Amino acid sequence: MSNHGEVDRKESSGNGTPPGAARRDRAARTAHGKRGRRILLGVLLALVLAVPGSMGAYVFSMAQIFASQTREIKNAFPAEAVRVRAQAVPAGSAKPINILVMGSDSRDASGGAAAEAAAGAPSNQRSDTLMLVHIPADRAHIYSISIMRDLWTTIPGHGEAKINAALAFGGVPLVVQTVESLLQQRIDQVVRIDFEGFQGLVDAIGGVTVDVKVPFTGTRAKSEYVFNAGPNTLDGARALAFVRERYAFADGDYQRVRNQQLLLAAVIGKTLDAGTVQRPLTLEHALSAVAPFVSVAPALDLVEAGRLAVSLRDVHRQDIAMFTLPTAGTGTSADGQSIVLPDPSAIEEIKAALSNDRLGDYVAAQGLGAGN
């Protein structure tokens, strides 16, 4: 598990810069960052002063948590020359938004691998979970497409490989480039979440209930929890075991992805519930619990996150659909790896639906509203 601030921390060595100058330069950059953050918070404070009662202070507190505890992925995107072009929209019109969510099950206590990945360098980490979150222009729904970690695809500059190898080959920028190439969609924002954050998040909102379709007993050491068929109420530790497990299932990662979607839906459903939303301390604790485990691209700053949240204020649990990018089953690569085979025709349909901002029509036609 990595510590806050690791992503943008770099020591000067071997480049001819005197250590003292490096420290002064780093201090100047830190001061500049703090000034920018204070200015941003000042603008936000001016906006929330118009909010009645104590709600303004509550919003300001949440903003401080977001600004100070989430980490920044400095180099989230590849060079513009190799990216998918942004779709043109009429002036004054909203545009669809694509957010790449990367989930990692961090085992690097030093945080070095996370820093390397964020800097666009090869690392020893692989992205355990990939989701493209698509928000249509009308902001009436949210769609999440899970991409199997072992999906066999072309990784630019590296040939064919499992998609989760992109992080190891070229850090976050290569993951973005790979997903953009796969679905021919421009990624607008990037969010990276360590699964450890789910534990504190679930505890902060008082636990969640999931309807387990495939009962199992955990196989990890110290997490041999039993999950019976039907409703299961999970605290943070059980939730973490629930989303991590894959060896207990005949179809392995397929069921793990379904369970991850199930937990996310439960968390979102409880958070969107009017009772939870009206409990400021609950939401503040939830944000405090998960923020240290979240890294975001610079484009997703405090103002942009707030603007996006406001635009989605009328979205409810029933307006959110989560499904997995259809595949053609499993197979074996030429070098003997167990892989997930892509379904070219399904991918082409989804590409067309995304490009036309008609993903809702595709979901309805395929009966994916409740997942797959």
Description of the molecule:
With 372 residues, this protein is α+β, with helices and mostly antiparallel strands. 41% of the residues lie in helices and 19% in strands. It has twelve helices and 15 strands. The protein has helices spanning 19-48, 55-69, 112-118, 166-183, 196-204, 236-244, 253-272, 274-277, 280-290, 302-311, 344-355, 359-366; strands at residues 71-72, 97-104, 129-135, 142-147, 152-155, 159-162, 189-194, 208-212, 216-217, 226-227, 230-234, 294-296, 320-324, 327-332, 338-342. The strands form five sheets. The chain has a seven-stranded mixed beta sheet, sandwiched between helices. Strand 3 (129-135) and strand 4 form a beta hairpin. The chain starts with 18 loop residues before the first helix and ends in a 6-residue tail after the last helix. 34% of the residues are buried. Residues 1-15 and 34-53 have low confidence and may be disordered.
Quick take:
The protein is α+β, with helices and mostly antiparallel strands. It contains twelve helices and 15 strands.
